[in-house]
Amino acid sequence: MRALIDLLRRRPAFRALWLGNLTSELGDWMGWVAVSVYALGEGEGIVPLALAYAAHNLPVALVSPIAGVFADRLDRRALMIGAAAAEGVLTLIMMAVVLADALAWLPLVLLLRSGLAGVFVPAERAVLPRVVEREELLLANTIQSTTWSVIFSVGMALGGLLAALGPALALGLDALTFFVSVLLFWRLPSVRPEAPLDPAQRGARAPWAAICAVAAELREAWRWQLPRPEVSRALFAKTALALAGATSWVLLYRVLWAAAPSIEAAAVIVGVMHGVRGVGTGVGPTLGTWLVRRGFDRMPLWHLAIFGALLGMTPLFLPLEHPAPLWVIGAGNLLWGIGGGTTWVFSSVTIQSESPDRLLGRLNAVDFFLFLVVQSGSAVVAALLIEGGMYHGAVGAGAAALGGLVWVGINLRARRLRRREATAPGA
């Protein structure tokens, strides 16, 4: 803990980045609980909830690859400030739409705001390696994950309370958090990509022409990571867990909604369970970092985290007629959070420390794109299968098994690549 505090004290730019993220994330989670409770409260099953989740994430996924190209060309600080300010304005518009009872416009504004989050994330992840030293990346990511877990828990709990008061208040507070984060990001130094553009290519690579070159530039980053086992594994680690995690997320709502005596009780229980998982996302990276700094190999811990998270999801697979006790579901959520948080930090640190600065924006965008598309798609597919009559435990167990198989396949490929490198001429 002392090392984490010392890093915040030594690195004022990292401190500003960290505080800005915390502020905006608090508003996001408060708003999400209100949206999810509203979706389930309509009484049309879990498909509307899964679709709302996908609508919240897919615009981010679609925009992030383009934003990753810009993050490797432009000032990343400016991109973060512009995206956060625009999200704040759009959130105010969402609040006005709610107050005017013009709810038909709300999905459109939400889609636009979600797309701006896709601009912010690749830039923010590419900034982190520039405000701390390489050997400090594990600590920095651990700080972000640990405090994210606190904000996630607090935001979910507040969101559950605000859901009973109406969405306008939550949206107003959400907008305020974006504007506060803009003020914090303003304190960051300029963060331009380290590798300057070739003067001969400036005309073809000007920002206004970037859209035309997106496919080629993303292909460059994709080809760069393919023969590099560590980076390639990190790019797909979150995706492997997302296959099972999104399905279990849908099941969590379904199981708790069936067990709750009222909508208000369901909102509170959902908030508490998300809060428990949020605590796990802080405990896991903190413990993992502590062990790595004392000489433990990262990979066995990573394997344990992945399969521990999958194990934590299993209480949700029991029949609705005989559900697991709430304390068992809570314990599973804690284990799920520990494994998920550790995976997030280990994969992010690997990408940031093993990749050149000129590709960081694009690689982080690819990482985020894969994670969000798989997570959103899995949630919708799981909801459709369950609503179509398939036993929800079978859907959950199948998704967990698929996630585990993907992780095993990723590691087998990494081992094969390392063996090829070792036997190559001149190795």
Structure characterization notes:
This protein has 427 residues and is mainly α. The protein has one domain: MFS general substrate transporter like domains (Growth Hormone, Chain: A), CATH 1.20.1250. The protein has 14 helices and no strands. The protein has helices spanning 2-10, 12-41, 47-71, 76-99, 106-131, 137-163, 167-185, 210-225, 229-259, 263-292, 298-313, 326-354, 360-387, 392-423. It is globular and about 65 Å long. Residues 196-206 have low confidence and may be disordered.
State the total count of DSSP E strands. 0
Oligomeric state of this protein: single chain
Give start-end ranges of low-pLDDT stretches: 196-206
How many separate domains make up the residues?
Answer: 1
CATH class wording: Mainly Alpha
The secondary-structure class comes to mainly alpha
Count the DSSP helices: 14
What form results from the Cα inertia axes? globular
CATH architecture descriptor text: Up-down Bundle
As a percent range, the share of strand residues is under 5%
CATH superfamily: MFS general substrate transporter like domains
Q: What can be said about the biggest beta sheet?
A: none
Radius of gyration: 21 Å
Distance between the termini: 41 Å
Percent helix, as a range, is: over 70%
